[in-house]
Structure formats: structure tokens, C-alpha cells
Write a structure and sequence with these properties.
By secondary structure, the chain is an alpha/beta fold. It contains 18 helices and 15 strands. A 6-stranded antiparallel sheet has the order 2-1-4-5-6-7, with helices on one face. It has a 6-stranded mixed sheet with strand order 8-12-13-3-14-15. Strands 9-10-11 form a 3-stranded antiparallel sheet.
């Protein structure tokens, strides 16, 4: 709730410190005394655009500070936490503006932007009759207000949950469709590339082996020459005969000393075996090189084919086998994806129908809630001298492109002020005084679910008096039992019902005009109401009438 307002150098106010209480407060004063200046100053605290024309003449800077307490709004708390602002039980907002146009805004001593201030202000105060874009006057808020009034949170949560499920299923289906469509565009190419790669059948590490083999084949003549030389050397030196002669000598020695030199004999035997194996391998190697004399051409063709494919697919030769598998997977995905897509479409349709069912349920509940709210508001209108007016909560179904977690309803509070007048949005049709009374009729019924702790009504008594003004005051008093209410009024019947009374006065001393605000005691209050009844000259009859009005 608004606890205090401190104003310096705003238009006619040089310095003003105001304290506000709970309940229903009234603000009165003669026309031109400066009541609107207070609303201008408070508007700065709530995020209204700061104009240098508000700076008091002869000064170069204005400042307005407001203190709020007993703030208990989860949405406001979330907003503050999101912006890393202190969430204390008491809030102090200060705004300054220099004649140069430079301004500063502080939230509990932390600097914030005007945009954020405007967001915060929505949760602190509603001003009816002046700012058409706040609270009940903004059609964007009507759906949430109706849902809060009807206690439709469970149905709203169910609708939101089913909407999210539907959108997730829809997104998944769209992604798969897109992937399949893209894959189909490449299907012919993929099939060709797979066939081409399968014919080549590239293997990891193959290029290195081919290049090694190619190097060998390029040296084939020299290799055969050297292998034949080695073969001839082993045969011409009769190494085999020499080894056998050595074995014979060692064998005779072993017979004399009981195989003492058996290891030598065995070594000679192994040498003989290895020489024979070497001769055989040399013979085979020479034959192999001679038999594969045409292999180099085949290898060159293979290397060229592999490199050509690697360039075509912008990869290394060793990556071709992976590329082949990727192409195969994409071809398989087209077939498998189409089968899976059918399941995804079925799942999406199932969840779409579930959302429609929950949204329809929410729609029906909103219609019942709207009928109840409309009846309650209409009951309030005749005593407010608006018996010919009509209040209707219009609920229209939106197109599928505007479905949301809140369902498919567009909710708008509409009014007509005369029997032959068309229904229109409340903030477009009603005049200032009518608008304030419509707001009053609404707020009296919505107060239980209101998230804004302070409401200010301006021009609520325009064009009314007597019993109607009394009816307005009674409703403001009822409203003040639930939230903090401040009304700027010219009606003594309204002023007499306030829990406390503030008076605005304008004084001129030495050609300097200033506006002051006083809280009236019982005697001063009776005198002020008498002035409101009689005008410039307060009569005894007016004082008696004021005394009678103050007897609640």
C-alpha cells in the first residue's frame, strides 16, 4: 500500500510530505487548487513519461519519492527477482528530473529504467479516470481478470499443460517432415552416390597400402635383379655342402663325448633349414614380382578413382567409407522416417484434440463466470445513475494461429451508455465520469481477486450529486475495506464517507503561488464539506448539512 509521498518542485508544489492510511481516503479542494498535480507526481512514480514542464518555475530539478509497504504479490516478486532487485517488505521509489531533461530512477537505492518502473508500477497502484492503459482499462488484462474472478486456475493450468504438449508434438512432426522433405530432394543423388561408392568399396588405410605397393612396382626390375643376385650367391658358394660337412664333423665329435656338442649340431641344422627356406623365398619373390608386372597400371587406376571420389565429397580418402555409411543411413531414414511420421501425426492429432477439449472446458467456465460478473456489475449501475447503461463481457474465439496456453478466447469488457448505443470496449466508449463509475462497479466485485493494493479514482463524481453521489461513496467505502482507496472528489456526499480527509489548497504570497495539502481533523473536515455544499460563503445551514452527512 502507498504509505507516503514526498514531492519537491513539481509545478505549484515546492515541498510536500504526505502520509496515507489504510481504508478509504478522500482528497478535496477548489477547482485549480492542484489536485491533478498530486496525480501527476504519483504518475511519475508509476512510470509515466517525465516532462520538464512539470518542474516548478524558478527551479532546475524536481524529485518525487513514494514509499509502499505490505507488498505481497508473487508476480511482482518474480519481476523484481528477475531484475535482481531487492524484494524487501517496504519499497521506496525515487524519481528525479533536471531541466536539461536528464532523469534518474531509484528502486530501494538501486537505479532502474523507466520501462522497468512502468512494469513495477502496474502492481502497486491503479489510477482510474486518467491513465487509460492501466489495470481494468487495458483489454489485454481482461482475460486474466475474468479468470481470477472465476477462480479458474486449475482449468487454466490444465489448458496450459495440454497446449505445451500439443506444441511439442507439432514441433517434432514439423521437424521430421522438414528433414524427410530435404532428404527426398537428395534421394536420387544419394542412391547414385551409394552405388558409386559401393562399386569402389573404399577401405580405411587402403591409400597408404596402394602407394607403398606402387612404389615397390616402380622398382620391380631392380628388385628382381637383386633377388636373383642373392639367390645365385647362396647357390654358387655351395653353402649347403659346407654346412653338411660341418655337421658331419660335429657329429663325429659328439660320438666321442656323448653328444657334448649337440647344440652346435642343432645350430648348423637350423642354419641349413633357413638357407633352404631363404632360397625358396628368393625364388618365389622373384616370380611374384615378374608375375605382377602389369599391377602398377591397376593400382594407378585405383588411386585415381579414390582421389576423384574424395574430391567429389570434399573429404580424405580414408573418410570415404564413413561417407558411404552416412549416405546409406540417410536413404534408410527416408523410409523409416515416413513410417515414423505417421505415428507422429497421430500423436499430434491426439494432443491437439486434448488441447481443444481443455480449451473448450475453459471457454465454458469463462462464459459462466462472465454471466455472473455481468449480473453483479449491472446490479451496481442503477444506484450510480447508470441504469440505462449495459455491461457485457464479450468472449470471442480466436483463430488457430492465436491459440495459446490461455486457451483460444479473447475477452473484452464492453459497455454501452445508452439503450441505442453500440457495445464497445470500456476504454473506448465511456467518458471520464462514466468510466470511473464503471470501474467502481467492477472493482467492488473484483476486489477479492485484485492483485493491486492501492486504487485511486479521479472524476468518479462528475455530473452526479445527491443520492447517486452517496451511492458512489458507499461503494468506495466498501472497496476501502478490502484495499487502499483514494478518491479525488467534488461531491460532499462522497467526501463525508472517507476514513480520512486530505484538502488541497493553493496560496499566493508575494506573487508566488504554491499548493499545500493538509489532513483535516473533525472540525476542519465538517467545515470543508460545508464549503463543498454551499460554495464560497459557508452558511450555518451548510454546516448543519455537513454534520448530518458525516453521521455515517
Amino acid at each position: 500500500m502507498l504509505r507516503s509521498l514526498h514531492i519537491n518542485n513539481v509545478v505549484l508544489i515546492d515541498k510536500l510530505d504526505l502520509d496515507f492510511a489504510d481504508g478509504f481516503g478522500v482528497l478535496t479542494g477548489e477547482t485549480g487548487a492542484g489536485k491533478s498535480i498530486l496525480l501527476d507526481a504519483l504518475g511519475l512514480i508509476l512510470g509515466r513519461r517525465a516532462e520538464t514542464s512539470l518542474i516548478r518555475q524558478g527551479t532546475d530539478k524536481l524529485s518525487v519519492t513514494a514509499v509502499f509497504s505490505d507488498i505481497n504479490n508473487p508476480e511482482l516478486t518474480a519481476l523484481l527477482q528477475e531484475n535482481e532487485l531487492e524484494t524487501a517488505s517496504e519499497i521506496m521509489i525515487k524519481r528525479t528530473l533536471q531541466s536539461s531533461g536528464i532523469g534518474k530512477i531509484f528502486f530501494n537505492d538501486q537505479p532502474i529504467s523507466a520501462k522497468l518502473l512502468k512494469e513495477i508500477g502496474k502492481y502497486l497502484v491503479e489510477i482510474h479516470g486518467q491513465f487509460d492503459n492501466q489495470g481494468l482499462l487495458n483489454p489485454a488484462n481482461h482475460r486474466a481478470i475474468l479468470d481470477d474472478f472465476g477462480g479458474l486456475q486449475k482449468a487454466l493450468n490444465d489448458c496450459g499443460s495440454s497446449y505445451k504438449s500439443y506444441r511439442v508434438a507439432q514441433k517434432k512432426r514439423i521437424e521430421v517432415e522438414s528433414n524427410i522433405a530435404k532428404a527426398k530432394e537428395d534421394e536420387d543423388n544419394l542412391a547414385h552416390w551409394v552405388k558409386e561408392l559401393e562399386q569402389i568399396n573404399p577401405q580405411v588405410g587402403e591409400m597408404a597400402e596402394l602407394q607403398t605397393r606402387r612404389q615397390e612396382l616402380m622398382q620391380a626390375e631392380k628388385i628382381i635383379e637383386n633377388l636373383n643376385y642373392a639367390y645365385s650367391a647362396l647357390q654358387s658358394s655351395d653353402i649347403t655342402s659346407a654346412l653338411r660337412s660341418a655337421q658331419s664333423g660335429v657329429s663325429r665329435a659328439n660320438n666321442l663325448v656323448n653328444d657334448k656338442y649337440a647344440s652346435i649340431y642343432e645350430a648348423l641344422d637350423n642354419a641349413l633349414i633357413q638357407v633352404n627356406e631363404a632360397l625358396e623365398e628368393l625364388e618365389n619373390a622373384s616370380a611374384d614380382v615378374a608375375l605382377n608386372a602389369n599391377e602398377q597400371e591397376n593400382i594407378d587406376n585405383r588411386i585415381f578413382a579414390l582421389k576423384d571420389l574424395a574430391r567429389k565429397h570434399s573429404c580424405d580418402v580414408d573418410a570415404l567409407s564413413d561417407i558411404l555409411q552416412q549416405f546409406k543411413d540417410k536413404l534408410n531414414a527416408i523410409t523409416l522416417g515416413e513410417d515414423g511420421l505417421s505415428d507422429l501425426r497421430t500423436d499430434e492429432q491426439k494432443k491437439r484434440l486434448a488441447y481443444i477439449e481443455s480449451a473448450n472446458n475453459l471457454h465454458k467456465l469463462r462464459i459462466k463466470t462472465a454471466e455472473k460478473l455481468d449480473a453483479l456489475v449491472m446490479n451496481e449501475l442503477p444506484p450510480l445513475k447508470m441504469e440505462k447503461a449495459k455491461f457485457i463481457t464479450e468472449i470471442k474465439s480466436l483463430g488457430e494461429d492465436r491459440w495459446s496456453e490461455q486457451g483460444f478466447d479473447d475477452v473484452c469488457f464492453t459497455v454501452s451508455t445508452n439503450p441505442n448505443s453500440p457495445q464497445g470496449a470500456i476504454n473506448k466508449i465511456a467518458s471520464g465520469g462514466e468510466l470511473a463509475r464503471f470501474m467502481l462497479a467492477l472493482k467492488v466485485n473484483l476486489v477479492q481477486t485484485s492483485s493491486v493494493p492501492t486504487m485511486i479514482f479521479d472524476e468518479v463524481d462528475t455530473g452526479i450529486g445527491g443520492a447517486v453521489a452517496r451511492a458512489v461513496g458507499e461503494r468506495l467505502s466498501r472497496l476501502g475495506q478490502k484495499v487502499q482507496v483514494l478518491v479525488v472528489t467534488h461531491a460532499p456526499q462522497v467526501a463525508s464517507l472517507g476514513d480520512y480527509h486530505l484538502k488541497v489548497e493553493k496560496n499566493t504570497i508575494n506573487d508566488i503561488t504554491t499548493t499545500k495539502v493538509y489532513q483535516l481533523d473533525d472540525v476542519a473536515r465538517q467545515e470543508e464539506i460545508a464549503r463543498m455544499l454551499s460554495g464560497a460563503v459557508v452558511t450555518d445551514e451548510a454546516r448543519a448539512a455537513a454534520q448530518q452527512l458525516l453521521k455515517k
